[in-house]
Structures are given as structure tokens and as C-alpha cells.
Amino acid sequence: MLRSLFALAAILALLGPVTAQEDLGRWFDDLSGWWRFENAPNGCSDEDNQYRVAVGRYQYANGVIEFGAGDRAIGLYEESCRVLDFSSREEGVLFFGDCSAEGDKIKGPGMISMPDKETLLLFLPTREDGLTLKLCPKVDKTASVVPANAPTTLLTVPMYDPFSYSFLATPLPQSSPDTVEFKVTVEGKEVGESFIRLNCKSGSYEDTQLGLWTGGAEAFLPAAMINAQRLLC
Fold first, then answer.
1. What are phi and psi of 101, to 5 degrees?
2. Residue-wise pLDDT tens digits, 49-65
3. Residue 175's pLDDT band (boundaries 50, 70, 90)?
4. Phi, psi torsion values for 41, nearest 5 degrees
5. Which long-range contacts (CB under 8 A, 24 or more apart) does 71-79 make?
6. Alpha helix (H) ranges present in the chain?
């Protein structure tokens, strides 16, 4: 299949575009959203993104993937392609993919066809075989790509250029509706680690040190807790 795609790409370079780039770009934009693997019926809810694919225009912002803005791309688990230079043919829509897969840079032609409005057949430069994808329900234009217990950045403290350090909070099971418990870790130029029990109503907190704090970083803990009350409660 890849050989035929490369041959088709060479032909297209000689013949020129058949359908306007802008029209094909808008068609691709309309595909924006999550698409699951055909053999993964629960893939749409897979927040690790091993069984679903981001297609269309999207961008990352604060650990969230936002559809409808950003580059035109196709994103899989540890693999992504920027989608460029559309051309239309009977077999489907041909594109040029600027891709990365597990650290390797791969460029070449790919193709999308659409047997029906909820099914994509996708061929990428990074894969020998094609993928069959099914459209996920579009509940929202954003979807979290961060596990529920992933660290949240509470505060970043700049130092002399280019150094800084950050306060990261990793949530733990809550002890009550009004109290949140988490581990706060300092990473960067300074280090530190504490267990925190934060009262969401009053903002007061209990701090149990779990490791050594360096460079006076603990002086910024109260400021980090103000942000924690806003972000975690």
C-alpha cells in the first residue's frame, strides 16, 4: 500500500491539484474530534489515548486537547503527523504527512477515505497497514489527556535565567468533602516534598514534610496553597 501511495504522490506532483486545497482543508477540519479504533468499542473513553485518535485541527493547552484550533494533524499514542498539501483522488484524499513516531521523524504521503460519515480509513507514512476508525460522540470540544491523579502545577518560582522550580500537587483520596489531601513536590533548581491536608473552606492546611527542602523553597509554600485551594477544591 505504501508503494502505491508513493507512486500516486509522484503522479500528483506532475498533474497538479484536482480539488482546491482550501476546500479539502475545510473538509479535514470538519473531521475534528476523537476517532476510536474499530476493534475497541470503549476506545472513546480511553484517556490514555491508546485506542483513540485525534483527527483534524487541535492543540494542547494545560494538559487538555482542544479541537477546532491549532495545526491540522492526526495524533495517536506516541505517534503524530502534521497533515499538509491535500489532493483529491477517486481512492480518497491524499496528503503529505510530517510525522514523528517514538522519536523518529518520518515524512511521506498518506491517505484518508470515508466509506460513511462515521468511518475513516486512514493510511499514514508511519505504518505499513491502514487503520479503520469510528467516530466518537462529540460531547465537548475538549477532552482531558491527563490521568485523574496526574500532578497539577501550583506555582513556578523563577530564579536567575534559565533556572526555576515548580510546586506540583499529586491528589490523594479525599478524607471528606471539605478537605483535600495531596503530595506536594518541588521540582527544578530546588527540591522538596510534603504531605498536605488542605481545608477547602478556610484555606488552612497541615504540612508534614516527607523529604528535605532546599534553597528556602518552603517560603513559597503558602502561595502555592492559595493556588491549591483554587485548583484542587
1. -140, 110
2. 889 999 999 887 766 78
3. low
4. -60, -25
5. 72/25, 72/28, 72/29, 74/122, 74/124, 75/49, 76/49, 77/48, 77/49, 77/50, 78/102, 79/124, 79/126
6. 2-15, 21-29, 221-232
CB atoms within 10 A of CB 137: 8
Which of 150, 159, 229, 160 lies closest to 185 in space, CA to CA?
150
Q: What is the pTM of this model?
A: 0.53
pLDDT over threshold 60, residue 190:
yes
Helix, strand or coil for residue 101? strand
Q: What are phi and psi of 127, to 5 degrees?
A: -135, 145
Grid look-up 476546500 returns 23
Question: Quick one: which of 31, 225, 205 has its CA closest to 120?
Answer: 31
**For residue 181, what is its C-alpha cell?**
489531601
Which of 135, 99, 142 has the alpha carbon at shortest distance from 117? 135
